[in-house]
Amino acid sequence: MEKASSHHFMTQVSVCVLIPAYNEEKEIGCVIEAVQQRGFAVVAVDDGSTDKTALAIQNSGAQCVISAVNEGKGAALRKGLQWVIQSPYQAVIVMDADGQHLPDDLDLFMQALESSGVDLVIGNRMHDPKGMPFIRRCTNRVMSGVISLITRQSVPDTQCGYRALTRRVFENIELRTHRFEIESEMILSACHKGLRIQSIPISSVYQNETSHIRPFLDTFRFFRFIFQFIFFHRRSRMLTRT
């Protein structure tokens, strides 16, 4: 296991914001503009959108990574992180394109990144989940309980996409999943590497937007991923010992 990193000195210049997007032409321009006004560079990944999402990204002046076909949020995040790895940024903050994540909360992530030894910062909406659809609240609590049990630490909102990663995280963990399982995979992989995880309370806006999350299918994928992850790492440990 790696030792926790020493104190981080982060500024907006050393941190970029990564936004995966799928058919978000109505919202993404405003989201990017709000982030840029706070001094952050933005890289947005258009995950095979069928509307004008890519054009909205390009018109905003953000760096745009385009997928020819829709591959899922996990695949979009992996492509975005590959771009960030080639850049000089020391950390990345991931946020959604649909306006659910408030740009004002970027300050909270910056404060957490600057604290000693923190490498993965995860937003926590569950301290005040009003407005969150009931089925999502239930599935989130179940998934977060499972992840907390495996990692032996409390991660109250493992499915929150608003999160910050230092370079130690995105250079040292290997992500394989293509869809929403990536939220859990990121946490488990960081924990496996001995990196420190912290949760911070954030706001979340729930309006009448159409969610790309399918609770029952994504819950099935979640548990399938959990079993595969545990099996893979147990097998790896056994092979290491032989």
Q: Can you offer a commentary on this structure?
A:
With 242 residues, the chain is an alpha/beta fold. It has one domain: Spore Coat Polysaccharide Biosynthesis Protein SpsA, Chain A (Alpha-Beta Complex). The protein is 41% helix and 15% strand. The chain is built from 8 helices and 7 strands, in the order βαβαβαβαβαβααβα. Strands 3-2-1-4-6-5-7 form a 7-stranded mixed β-sheet, with helices on both faces. Helix 1 packs parallel to helix 2, helix 5 packs parallel to helix 7 and helix 5 packs parallel to helix 8. The longest helix is centred in the last third of the chain and has 27 residues. The radius of gyration is 17 Å and the shape is globular. It starts with 14 loop residues before the first strand and ends with a helix. The N terminus is likely disordered.
